[in-house]
TrEMBL record:
Limits of the Alcohol dehydrogenase-like N-terminal domain: 26-153
The protein, known as: Zinc-binding alcohol dehydrogenase
Keywords: Metal-binding, Zinc
PANTHER family the record matches: DEHYDROGENASE, ZINC-CONTAINING, PUTATIVE (AFU_ORTHOLOGUE AFUA_2G02810)-RELATED, ZINC-TYPE ALCOHOL DEHYDROGENASE-LIKE
Entry superkingdom: Bacteria
Cofactor: Zn(2+)
Domain Alcohol dehydrogenase-like C-terminal: 196-266
InterPro entries assigned to the protein according to its UniProt record, in alphabetical order: ADH-like_C, ADH-like_N, GroES-like_sf, NAD(P)-bd_dom_sf
Name of a matching Pfam family: ADH_N
Length: 390
């Protein structure tokens, strides 16, 4: 089969690789009908995540048609269309029973490696390094889905791929990021990054009842989309001081909640911060927590900082501000399974616009290497890339 594979920093190729095989009775094999490039995939492309190996198949946002089932599998049948969450769940460990799906204790085949890095294992993830199990991802024509009797969901009748594809990751991630801000109605919420996750965080905050939603980015097309999705204010961090604007909008109080949808490769805005960030980027490959630093600064005392953006290792954080301001910091990989059914219902009710952020489509995985670069460089108005390989 054809698949998009990692071969080193900046080196993504469309390779011919062996077809997946059933390895356990709970497995299914799916023919991929839709898959997408995620912002998190760019961290892999840029060499920010350890334990990648040449030839690893990428992709954790995918869905498709079941074409083969394991001997012990009873949930799905051949021909079923299913959405596959990016994290893999056993359904049997203590964390799964608590509904903490992203920290499943049994699905990561390299749990000891993850525990050494993070102090505790994560769930197994599709297409996201050997630190999370070394599972091949879904930017491919076919995928083996392990433990498929737990997390994946059958697509309801009448819903097309582009209505539900983003339930695999970025819609629940944006929702969880907003949910962590404990929005009850009337709040000011600031969202760093108007990429796909940020745009869904904005839509989520609107659904939850936030009064003012501030989108922070520097790409005109993304800021324009943010307004259509519910942002009441936009800040171009390339030309404006984010802290001063938030102070102005909030009448000196600060935002009630802030959501860092950028993560480890944040770029700084104008002024001295931009110069320092550029120097750090040129001299080191360490993570750049500019967005998180600004979020901590801009949130009000006793406010909430929500971090759905990906970080892979230690970063400098102003604990003095967190402690003295009495802040709450909430983060974590998304517990996707927790949100599948309620978010599907909201999509059916028209509360979410899932398809309009797709700017680039392809039926040929061979276009993948170039589209990775287009997405990374934000060229051609690129916001989201989706493939329909079958």
């Amino acid at each position: 089969m054809k698949a998009l594979c990692w071969h080193g920093k900046g080196d993504i190729r469309c390779d011919t690789v062996p077809d997946p095989q059933i390895e356990d009775g709970r497995d299914v094999i799916i023919k991929v009908t839709s898959c997408a490039i995620c912002g998190s995939d760019l961290h892999l492309m840029d060499g920010q995540m350890p334990t990648m190996k040449a030839g690893d198949v990428l992709g954790h946002e995918f869905m498709g048609e079941v074409v083969e089932v394991g001997s012990a599998h009873t949930k799905f049948r051949k021909g079923d269309r299913i959405v596959v969450p990016f994290n893999i769940n056993c359904g049997e460990c203590r964390q799964c029973k608590l509904g903490n799906w992203s920290v499943c204790q049994r699905s990561n085949r390299n749990a000891a490696m993850a525990a050494e890095q993070f102090g505790y294992t994560t769930a197994g993830l599709f297409g996201y390094s050997h630190l999370t199990g070394g599972y091949w991802g879904g930017q491919a024509e076919y995928v083996r889905v392990p433990m498929a009797d737990v997390a994946p969901m059958r697509v309801p009748d009448g819903m097309d791929d582009e209505s539900v594809l983003f339930l695999t990751d970025i819609l629940p991630t944006g929702w969880q990021g907003a949910e962590h801000c404990e929005i009850r109605g009337g709040e000011i919420i600031a969202v760093w990054g108007a990429g796909p996750v940020g745009l869904f965080a904005i839509q989520s905050a609107k659904v939850m009842g936030a009064e003012r939603i501030i989108a922070i980015d520097t790409v005109p097309e993304r800021l324009a989309l943010a307004r259509t999705y519910g942002a009441t204010d936009v800040i171009d961090f390339g030309s404006e001081d984010v802290f001063e604007r938030i102070q102005e909008i909030s009448r000196g109080e600060g935002a009630d909640g802030v959501i860092d949808c950028v993560g480890m490769e944040a770029s700084a805005g104008h002024g001295v911060a931009s110069v320092l960030s550029t120097i750090q980027e040129k001299l080191t490959s360490t993570e750049r927590p500019y967005a998180l630093t600004e979020a901590i600064r801009a949130v009000r005392p006793c406010g909430i900082v929500s971090v759905p953006g990906v970080y892979g290792g230690p970063i400098p954080v102003n604990m003095g501000s967190i402690v003295q301001k009495g802040l709450t910091l909430k983060s974590g990989q998304t517990h996707v399974k927790r949100y599948l059914e309620p978010l599907t219902k909201l999509i059916q009710e028209g509360k979410f616009d899932t398809a309009s952020l797709i700017t680039h489509r392809s039926t040929n995985l061979a276009d993948g290497p170039d589209l990775y670069k287009t997405f990374r460089d934000k060229k051609d108005g690129c916001v989201k890339v989706v493939f329909h390989p079958n």
